[in-house]
Amino acid sequence: MTTITPELSLDAYRGKHILVTGSTGYLANNLIHMLKGIECQITRVARSGKILTLVEGKCNVLDIIGDLTIPALWQQVLPSIDVVFHFAGQANILQATQMPVEDIQHSIIPLLRLLETCRQMHLKPHVVLASSVSLYGYPSQLPVDETCADKPQTIYDLHKLHCEEYLHYFIKHEHVTGCSLRLSNVYGPGVQAGKFYNGLINHAIYCGLQREPIPVHGNGESERDYLFLDDASRAFLAAGLQTNKVNDQVYIVSSGTSHTVNSVIEKVLIGLRNIRGINAEIKTVDIETHSQARDFRSTSSKFYNATGWEPIVDLEQGINLTIAAQ
User: In sequence order, what DSSP letters do the residues of 19-61 get, joined into one string?
Assistant: First the structure.
């Protein structure tokens, strides 16, 4: 893939210095591999190097392993950086709820250190922040757009919102440029599929491949908006190149189409059977949280109008690509 949008090519990153935080995560890793054929400088920052993947290509990759809450790390990596893709943060909603102070250390302090270092060193990179549509809570009407009120329901959501507000503050005072991308349910190859909090689709595929029954919460009629991983990565790459168009904005990034849990599972079952020869089974389980029963659909019209980005992988194709990659 060489195209980000009809008007933007990956080649636009040629010669740029790019910083990617949370580099062991699936979003960061996928974005980096999209750039591997471009002659650019990528600095990967992570707390641990245990699962940093090898990147072979034209890009030059520098790995920095360390504590993201320490100012010295940011003072080392930020000079000369053009674009920051900030994915670092704790992704487990339950863990954030049980240990909110620790979650601040993982999810908020690294961004604050980054922004404060930019202020102190008079640097001005373009920061694209990963956020979530879960900040809208349980909306009363669909589809959701950026005019809807924020109604965070969890500690995880609260901390995501705090990060957005800190970025807005530093942009307002002209220490950085940037924007926040609120992602819908991202799925695709590389997601930690054994963990349900990393998404229905990947978990269902994982269970099927393990010859385990695929769990369906409740009647399976709740609807969700699912976004394929490559489309999510292209959204970040589009935002990273269009500073003036996206500066100080919050965007929803989604497929714009909702599907019931039952219809999603049916596509997974067909894909498992056709691609892997597996006849998987399902099991009905009780609804554990209100979020498992909510309906959600959103629109990315604002982001499309600003950048030209739109999703190109439909649900069936994305599920089949994910199964084939396992």
Answer: EEESTTSHHHHHHHHHTTTS--EEEEEES--TTPPP--SSSEE
